[in-house]
Amino acid sequence: MHDNLPGTPPLVRAVNRRLILDRVRQSGEVSRAELAKLTAIRPPTVSAVIKQLIHEGLVEEIGSGESNTRTGRPPRLVALARRRPQAVGFEVSGSRIRAALCDLRGEATEKALLPYAPDTPERTVDRLFETGERLLRKRGLRWSDMQGVGVALPGLVDTSHGVVRWSRPFGWRDVALGTLCASRWGLATDVMNNVVASSMASHFLGDARHSRNLIFIHMRFDVVEPGTPADAVRLGSGIIINGEPYHGAFGAAGEISRLVVHPLAYARDAEGRPFANTAALESAFLSGVSSAVEAMDRVADDISNYVIHAINFLDPGVVVLGSDHDVLRDAVLDRLKRILAGDALRQEVGTTEIMASTLGEFGMVRGAVVPTLQRVFRMPRWS
User: Fold this and answer.
1) pLDDT tens digits for 327-379?
2) What pLDDT sits at residue 225?
3) Nearest residue to 149 (alpha-carbon basis) of 195, 91, 216
4) What pLDDT is attached to residue 149?
5) HSE of 281 in the Cβ direction (CA atoms, 13 Å)?
6) What's the rounded Cα separation, in Å, for the pair 226 and 118?
7) CB atoms < 10 A from the CB of 3, how many?
8) From CA 9, how far away is CA 142, in angstroms rounded?
9) Class of domain 87-193
């Protein structure tokens, strides 16, 4: 909501707009009459606000609901506009760039995936611009048609200023990436850690919307970062406390610096040879090869110990597990649930819900645009 609104009428209009738009977001599909009941705002005011939101391209009519028993006429339903994207999201990793145009629901409506090798910040921004330009052109849109842009990447990020303090995969230090991006495409750009982006997507868009306190744990079994041992699982976490991301005093909250030994270091095939890669290990695990199963049990125990300590320390309502290998993630998830079921403290204070991420391959991209969506909905901005 804008600060210093001049006078009561503008303030009331701004509050009504925010309440109605957010209720449309939460409801999915809703009639004007139902909005009036849910928000306690007079029906003529609701109709006027909806008319303005339709004009702005934020809301659209999607058809008729069930007939009204009093009038016999079916009400016209409205929902968040789905026809036109509102934001551009990027995820940059050590090997790929994922990009998407996202609508007001945070859904990726146009996607791109391309290889990437760590490069200078300037050349990286050029790659992002070219990728976003192609996506926009496919929909007949321009950068100026978007509400904002989000960029997620690994490293320590000062989200308030859009500065990448340190990214080991890219070799970047104190890079004002937000400023570089905003000057390149002329839009407000939010820069954030990639796993923090996942936590924001889970809380704002995903299955963990019901919890205001959650931890997102991301497990990378395919590690391609320079300087990272090939026989290690890379762990990262994003923390949401009371509905907002927690970054800590210096932006390093959630960093897990101690590495977990990769199951490839333990597992052997029938001839006693190491598996060629994580995909081969995963296939052997699914086939019940004892060495692969035992290796995953061992690694699941190691990862679960970290997660259990985090659960008991922060007492979240939900822990969401994400990974670049769903099968191996689910093996950790099963082990974690078994350990949590026998935790005496959890039995006394309440059981934390453990779930697998359902955000999909472009989950970090979707999380990157959450601050843009919050500005559209005029919600308090996460920082």
Assistant:
1) 999 999 998 888 877 765 555 556 789 999 999 999 999 999 999 998 887 76
2) 46
3) 91
4) 98
5) 29
6) 10
7) 4
8) 34
9) alpha beta
For residues 45 and 51, give the distance between their C-alpha atoms in angstroms, rounded to a whole number.
10
Residues 6+ away with beta carbon under 8 Å from 358: 206, 207
3-state secondary structure at position 355:
strand
CB–CB of 210/154 below 8 Å? no
Q: Pairing between strand 30-31 and 59-64? A: unpaired
| Residue 195: strand, helix, or coil | helix
- Which tokens go with 89? 């999201």
User: 227 pLDDT band (50/70/90 cuts)?
Assistant: very low
Q: Span 207-358: which CATH code? A: 3.30.420.40
User: For the chain, what are the domain ranges?
Assistant: 8-80, 87-193, 207-358
Q: In what order do the strands lie in the sheet with 59-64?
A: 30-31, 76-80, 59-64
pTM of the model: 0.84
Task: Say if 87-193 and 207-358 have the same CATH topology.
Answer: yes
From residue 254, alpha-carbon distances to 175, 193, 240 in Å are 21, 10, 10
Question: Is 117:173 a contact under the CB 8 Å cutoff?
Answer: no
Question: Residues 275-332: pLDDT tens digits?
Answer: 988 999 999 999 999 999 999 999 999 998 888 888 888 999 999 999 999 999 999 9
Whole-number Cα distances in Å, 293 to 265, 279, 303, 352 = 13, 14, 15, 26
Q: Examine the pLDDT at 228 and tell me if it is beyond 80.
A: no
50: tokens are 């909806």
Nearest CA-CA partner of 335 in 254, 219, 243, 230: 219
Q: Quick one: CA torsion of 104, 107, 108, 109, rounded to 10 degrees?
A: -70
CATH topology of domain 8-80: Arc Repressor Mutant, subunit A (1.10.10)
According to the model, what pLDDT value does residue 226 have?
43
